[in-house]
Design a protein that fits this description.
The protein has 255 residues and is mostly helical. Helices cover 70% and strands 2% of the residues. It has one domain.
């Protein structure tokens, strides 16, 4: 299915999921940025989690050998490079979490503060997006366990299974995180009063943008995955039609 083809029911489901996730991520990321700025233990917890997540992404990018196939090599290399770049940003965000302290950080100039919060916003958005993606893939796989595959060696394909879809998700996460972090730092939400006026202003601006961006990203990712699969038999690909490296990519294991 191309990006410009006619609208299907699956596009509407994808759009709904994107709007809900975009709105949800706006609240989660903003609240997480507040806690990282105010709560020392929370910032240490997030910093440790970011360092672990960055290392995990690098490890998984090298483990998925399916991206080294000749047919998919350009897109695979591009996806892997983007994953490495995001992993580096997440690790850097983890280091920033250990440096955040409200007593001195609020006095920094916007030139320093906004890029740091933008980087933290990107890392939080990236982590939230791919945590949601893993949960969605697990749900999809669980739903298919009750269906009988056409062949015994069939492998279920998840909603996101191509390098192009990964690139679209990474780009969407990047934009979301930049928007959250930019407005959070620009409005000085971390220096908000007990009335939370600045927090409400931040949500008033970011939530609609996040909903629209989530909608667009979700529909694009869905269309990059190929035609809509309505029959159970088309939800599988068989080992006989794939080489060993492709099996390793879809099964997320060495062959």
């Amino acid at each position: 299915m191309g990006i410009g083809s006619r609208v299907h029911t699956g596009d509407l489901y994808a759009a709904l999921i994107g709007v809900v996730f975009g709105t949800f991520s706006s609240y989660i990321v903003t609240n997480a940025l507040i806690e990282v700025s105010f709560n020392r233990w929370f910032s240490v917890l997030f910093g440790t989690g970011f360092l672990f997540l960055g290392g995990l992404i690098i490890w998984r990018a090298h483990r998925q050998k399916g991206w080294s196939t000749v047919a998919a090599e350009p897109a695979a290399q591009h996806s892997r490079t983007m994953l490495h770049g995001f992993a580096g940003m997440i690790i850097l965000s983890g280091l920033f979490c250990f440096l955040l302290e409200k007593d001195w950080f609020c006095n920094l100039s916007p030139i320093i503060k906004i890029p740091m919060y933008s980087l933290l916003g990107v890392s939080l958005s990236f982590a939230l997006t791919f945590a949601f993606l893993d949960a969605l893939n697990l749900l999809h796989e669980f739903r298919l366990t009750g269906l009988k595959a056409a062949q015994e060696d069939a492998i279920p394909l998840g909603p996101v299974h191509t390098p192009a879809q990964i690139c679209a998700l990474i780009f969407g996460s990047l934009l979301l995180g930049l928007i959250f972090g930019f407005f959070f730092g620009s409005l000085d939400v971390e220096d908000d009063s007990h009335t939370h006026v600045k927090l409400m202003e931040d949500r008033y601006v970011c939530t609609p943008i996040a909903a629209v961006l989530g909608l667009v990203t979700s529909v694009v990712v869905r269309r990059l995955g190929g035609p809509y699969r309505s029959a159970p038999s088309t939800m599988y690909t068989t080992v006989g039609s794939m080489d060993k490296e492709e099996v390793a990519f879809f099964a997320d294991q060495d062959v």
